[in-house]
Each structure stands twice: as C-alpha cells, then as structure tokens.
Amino acid sequence: MFQAFEWNIPADQQHWKRLKEAVPKLKAIGVDNIWLPPGCKAQSAEGNGYDIYDLYDLGEFDQKGGKSTKWGPKEDLIELCKAAKENGIGVYWDAVLNHKAGADKTERCRVVEVDENDRNKETSEPYEIEG
After folding, report:
1. What is the rounded CA–CA span in Å between residue 36 and residue 70?
2. Cα 44 from Cα 51, distance rounded (Å)
3. How far is 26 from 34, CA to CA, in rounded Å?
C-alpha cells in the first residue's frame, strides 16, 4: 500500500492529477493499493481534510472560498480512481468522520463529563457548552 499524502503537500489543487500521472509507475513497482487523504471539503483551502466542513463535498460545490479541495476538484478524483482501477490498483480513503471542526456556526448542547478510564461512568451533572 502506498500512502499518497503527508501533511506538507502543496495546497495547489493538483494532487489528484499528480497521483493519476503516477499510477503507471506505482503499478510498475508493485503497488497494489493507494491510500488517499481525506478529500472532503475542509474549513479552508489549505485544510488537510481533518477539519471537515462538508462530508459530501469532494470538490464539487463553491463553498468555503472555492470549489476544489486542497487536493483538487471532484472530477480529478474520479479520473484518479478510474486510472487506479484500470491498472488493478485499489483505492482506500482516509476517513475521519467525527472531525467536524470546519463548521460555520456553533450551537449550545448539553454534555456530561465522564471517567477517563470508563466512558460509561458519568462524573458530572449535565451542563451546557458551546460546540
């Protein structure tokens, strides 16, 4: 498996294209799977995908300052996946679905504190926070 991302990749919206171009070389050296970064729309154009704004926007909708994600537009992602499939390379998606730091607004919600060794054991009364 080839991990196709790291923290300092340029935010030039060309990553999906670069990977598509690399697919034949990856196949030639025996790579049978590629591991893609979280490609959802992030809080900013430079977001690595762990600051999710919209799980369903893979670089398709004009929001948060543009259409593309850091990695590129949805069309380029689809082309990358097609090229991988044509070359017998599987695609894995790095999904961290509980990372929701990219929201536009916050809201009040009730929470309780829990024991650090037993999350089923409440250690406080319910109270409100802004989250």
Report:
1. 13
2. 8
3. 9
What would the two tokens of residue 28 be? 């030639």
pLDDT in tens, the chain (131 residues): 999 999 899 999 999 999 999 999 999 999 999 999 999 999 888 988 888 899 899 999 999 889 999 999 999 999 999 999 999 999 999 987 777 777 788 889 999 999 999 999 999 999 999 97
Whether 130 is covered by a domain: the verdict is no
The answer as to whether 7 is a domain residue is: yes
Length of the chain: 131
Which CATH number is 51's domain given? 3.30.750.90
How many domains does one find in the chain?
1
Structural domain that includes position 97: 2-104
Residue pair 61/41 in contact (Cβ under 8 Å)? The answer is yes
